[in-house]
C-alpha cells in the first residue's frame, strides 16, 4: 500500500510539527509514505464560501498529486470532509473518484484501516481535553455526537487511551463548535472569537493542561483566542501525542 | 422594504458587547437544548420518530395540492370557511374583510409566525383595528415594537429588568420589579379585560389534518384557547405546509414538537379545532406567500418540513451568541438562514454565512431537515447570483488561482512567514485585520513542513522527483 501524505496549508505554514509527527508516526507503523512536493490546498476555503468554481484549480492539482496513491492520508478532519463530501468543482472522472474514495483523516486511518493496537513509544504525562472538530464529529463520524443520543464511541479517544500517563477531562459542552468555520473566523470575527474563548475556558475550567485535536485549523483559532484572553492552556495535535511527544 | 443586505456580523458584535444579556441568552437556550436531550434519552424510538416525521412531511409535500383540497372539502363540511391567500397582501386583505364584515375593531391573537411574515398588524392598524398579542413573550415584543427574536420564546433576548421597564411604560407597574411572576400577573391583569371585550380572535395552527378537515394549536399559556373561544369569531392563519394527511400521523409530531422545542413531553394545551362554536364563525386562511415557489427548489424544498420547534436555534452556537434580532428577519437562526433568502435573496444574502457549518442544527431537527447542507448550497447559489460582496468574491478568486500554482503558492507562504515574524504589532493587530481583533495570530515558524521535508526526506532519495503529472 502506497500512501500519499497531504499536509493542509495551515499545518504546512504554522504547525509543521503536526505534519512531521504525522509522517514519522506513519513511518514508525511501517507504512510506505510519500509527500508530493507540489501540493497546496484541497479547495475547501473556496468551496465553503460558495465560490465553488474557484476551487477547481486546487482540486485538479490535488488529483494530479494524489491519484497515483492507494490511500491518501491527512491530519485534518475538515480537509478530508471536503475531499470526500464536497469535492465537485471538477468533472468526476475515475481518477477523481479514486482520490475521493481513498482519502482518510489520520485518526480514522489509524483506527479503521491500520487498526493500530499500541503506541509503545508514546507517553504523555498531562491532563488533556479532546476537541473534536465538527468535520470529524458530524461529517466523518469519528465520534458519537450528543445531538443523536447514540451509544458513545470515539476513535480519537480509543487511540489516545493507548498512550501511557495521559489523563482526560471532559468540558461541559464537549461537542459545541469552537467557532473557527474557515472564512467565518474573519467575516463574523466577533462571534467566532467569542465561541473560541468560551471553548478554551470550558476546557481550562474542566482542568485541562492541553487541548488535543485532530484539526489544526480549530487549534490555530483557539490558540489565538486563549493567548489574547490570557487562558493558560496549551495545544497539541493528536499526531504529536501518538508519535511520542512529551509536551 | 429595503433591499440592503442585513449586516448580521455587526449586529452580533453589538449583541456581544452586553455581557449580562449575552450570558443569559446563551445559557437559557443551552438549557433548553439540554432538556431536549434528556427527553430524547427517555425515548428509545427517538430516531425512528424523526425518520417517520420526515417521511410523512416529505410525502405530504409531494402531494400538497391533493391534501390541501381534501382539507378544504372536509373543513367546509365541518362548517369552517376556508380562504386561500397567495401572498401576505392577499392574506391581510382577507383578514381585513372578515373583520370589517363583522364590524370587529378589537382583535386578540396568539402567536403566529405567518402573520409576522405578512406584516399584518400595521395593515390592520391602518384599518382602525386594535390588535393585541396574548402570548406573554409576543406581547412584550409587540409593546417594544420588535420582531420576535425566537420562534418559540419570542422575548428570550430580554432580561426581567427589560420587561419591567416595558411594562412600567405601558401598564404603569413598578419599573424595579424583578420577580417574573409579578410581571406575568401584570400582563394577566392587563390582558383579561381586553380578551373579554374582544370582537374577534386569531390563532395560528401547528398542524392541519386533511382527512378530518381540522387543525391543532399547541401552546403553553392557554392564550390561544382564550383567543379562539372567547370571541365568537375565530380566524386561523396557517401556512400551506402545515398539513398532515391523517389524524394517525399527528401523534408522531405531537411527541416530537415540545420535546424538541422546550424539552417538555408535551405542550400544556394541545387543542383540536373541529368547527365553529355554537353561534360563532370559524375561518381558516391558508397562506402560500412563497411556499409553492420554495417547493419547486430542488435543493431547498425540504425546508418546508419545518414544524417551527426552534431546536436548531437553541443548539446553534452562533445564534446563542448573536441573538435572533441580529438576523434582521422574521425567521432567525439556522432555519431562518435557509428560509429567509427565498423571500428576498439580496437582503438575506448574508444569513447563510452566519454559520460555521458545524451541523448541530441538522442533527437536532425533529423532521431531519439537512439545514447545514442547505446553508452550504445557498452560498453556492448566492455566489452564482452575484450576491456576494465584490471584495470577498475577488479574494476567493485570487486564492483559488494561487492554490492551483504550487510555485507561486510557495512564494506567498514565505511572504506570510516573513511578515508574521517581522511586522510590528500595531500593523498585525489593527482594525484592518479582523482575525487579530480578538485573537493573536499564529506564531511564525522557522521552516514550513514543505521546507522540512525537502531537507530531511528528499535528500535521502536518489533523484529529485519529477513533476507529478499524469
Automatic annotation (TrEMBL), chain A:
Recorded GO MF terms: oxidoreductase activity
InterPro entries (UniProt xref): Cys_rich_dom
Lineage: superkingdom: Bacteria
Residue ranges occupied by any Cysteine-rich domain in the UniProt entry: 4-83, 128-221
Record GO cellular component, one term: cytosol
Pfam family, one: CCG
PANTHER family per UniProt: LACTATE UTILIZATION PROTEIN A, UNCHARACTERIZED PROTEIN YKGE
Protein name: Lactate utilization protein A
Gene (name only): lutA
From TrEMBL, chain B:
An example molecular function term from Gene Ontology annotations: metal ion binding
One GO process term, biological-process aspect: lactate metabolic process
Domain of life: Bacteria
Annotated 4Fe-4S ferredoxin-type domain residues: 297-318
Gene3D superfamilies per UniProt: Alpha-helical ferredoxin (1.10.1060.10), NagB/RpiA/CoA transferase-like (3.40.50.10420)
Keyword Disulfide bond: no
Keywords: 4Fe-4S, Electron transport, Iron, Iron-sulfur, Metal-binding, Repeat, Transport
Protein name from the UniProt record: Lactate utilization protein B
Organism name: Komagataeibacter europaeus
Gene name of this polypeptide: lutB
